[in-house]
Amino acid sequence: MTTRRTFLFQVVPAAVAVATLGQRANAAALKELSVDNSPAAKALKYVTKSTTAGQTCDNCKQFVASNKTCKLFAGYTVQPKGWCKSWVKI
Questions:
Q1: How far, in Å, CA of 54 to CA of 26, rounded?
Q2: What are the boundaries of each domain within the chain?
Q3: Which of 20, 40, 60, 77 is the most exposed place for a label (fewest CB within 10 A)?
C-alpha cells in the first residue's frame, strides 16, 4: 500500500522534472533576436547591447526573465543587456 508520504516523495519530484524539461525544450526552440531576422526588431531599433544608461532588457517591463524573451518579439530570445525603443521602466 502506498502512503501519502511515499506518493508525495515520488510524484512531486517527477512533476518538477517534467516542468523543468518542458521549459528548457521550449527555450531551446527559440531563436535569438537580431535586426536581421525580425522586421519588428529593426523597426524598434533593437540592439544586443544597450548604450542607454540604466535601460536594458532585463530591467524592462516587457522582459520575461524565466526564458529571456520579450513580450514584443514572440518566438525569439533577447539579450538581457539589450535595448529597444519600446523600453518601459519596471
A1: 30
A2: 4-77
A3: 20
